[in-house]
């Protein structure tokens, strides 16, 4: 589950603000339980536990079902990520370029793999040759197990501009047949043929439907990713503030006419768990791959 810092996420924050409800989550992390079992474990009445269960269910943290006369509760999520508003760097001028996920300029992929637009799948799944059909340009979700996708954008800086930072943001997850919330994948990023480092995606998420994922797309397939932001600065490269590598902005040739960004799952990765990229019509974030230049 992904949350923003806004009022729509308040039911989740309120549900977590209780010692009893945290204990219920701990119990359900081990097994499904009915209300009476939870009440016994916590030494509380079934009526009190029922109220706490309702709070957690409203927040979509747990799900319940009727089995005979019993109400069985289980966890619906295994992680919650909170996206804070991005800092704004007012000191510099900026240039933004948005690249749809189907607009890659080079690729090499292995199954499981596939593409889909906002209306339907593009060709049969697990057929890498369909990654070159013209219809790929309309893709809003792309996935593969091993290989890479490479994107290019124009360098619109003038010769008198001084590049201070590059920010690249995108929604991404692992790739598993159907979905698996616990499926780590080591995904490597490169920029203009310089390797920036690798980040481990924790899983391929389908615990809740993506906010923008179209209704025709099946519930049991990957629904959303995590919004990740890579920043190349004068101090090195980080991803969401966490160190990625020592590669810094002065290592780039700013006279180049294009920027190249590659996303890759290597053959020798420790966790070969694939990669899924979400465009603005899929997942939880209404954006394509964004490359933002900060300059003076």
Automatic annotation (TrEMBL):
Residues 1-95 form the HTH arsR-type domain. InterPro entries: ArsR-like_HTH, HTH_ArsR_DNA-bd_dom, HTH_MetalResp_TranReg, UCP030050_HTH, WH-like_DNA-bd_sf, WH_DNA-bd_sf. The keyword Zinc-finger does not apply. It comes from the Bacteria. Keywords: DNA-binding, Transcription, Transcription regulation. Pfam families: HTH_5. This is ArsR/SmtB family transcription factor.
């Amino acid at each position: 589950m992904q949350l923003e810092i806004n009022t729509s996420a308040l039911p989740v924050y309120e549900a977590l603000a209780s010692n009893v409800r945290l204990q219920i989550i701990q119990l359900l992390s081990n097994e499904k339980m009915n209300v009476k079992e939870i009440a016994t474990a916590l030494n509380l009445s079934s009526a009190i536990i029922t109220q706490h269960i309702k709070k957690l269910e409203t927040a979509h943290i747990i799900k319940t079902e009727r089995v005979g006369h019993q109400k069985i509760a289980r966890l619906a999520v295994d992680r919650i990520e909170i996206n804070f508003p991005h800092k704004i760097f007012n000191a510099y001028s900026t240039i933004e370029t948005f690249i749809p996920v189907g607009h890659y300029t080079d690729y090499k992929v292995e199954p499981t793999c596939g593409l889909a637009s906002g209306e339907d799948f593009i060709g049969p799944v697990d057929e890498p040759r369909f990654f070159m059909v013209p219809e790929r340009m309309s893709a809003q979700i792309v996935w593969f197990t091993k290989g890479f996708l490479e994107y290019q954008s124009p360098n619109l800086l003038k010769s008198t501009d001084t590049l201070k930072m590059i920010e690249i943001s995108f929604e991404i997850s692992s790739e598993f047949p159907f979905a698996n919330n616990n499926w780590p994948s080591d995904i490597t990023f490169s920029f203009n043929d310089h390797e920036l480092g690798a980040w481990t995606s924790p899983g391929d998420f389908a615990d809740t439907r993506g906010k923008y994922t179209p209704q025709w797309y099946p519930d049991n397939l990957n629904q959303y990713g995590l919004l990740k932001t890579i920043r190349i600065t004068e101090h090195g490269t980080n991803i969401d503030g966490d160190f990625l590598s020592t590669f810094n902005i002065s290592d780039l040739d700013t006279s180049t006419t294009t920027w190249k960004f590659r996303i890759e799952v290597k053959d020798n990765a420790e966790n070969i768990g694939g990669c899924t990229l979400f465009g603005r019509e899929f997942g939880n974030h209404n954006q394509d791959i964004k490359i933002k230049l900060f300059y003076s």
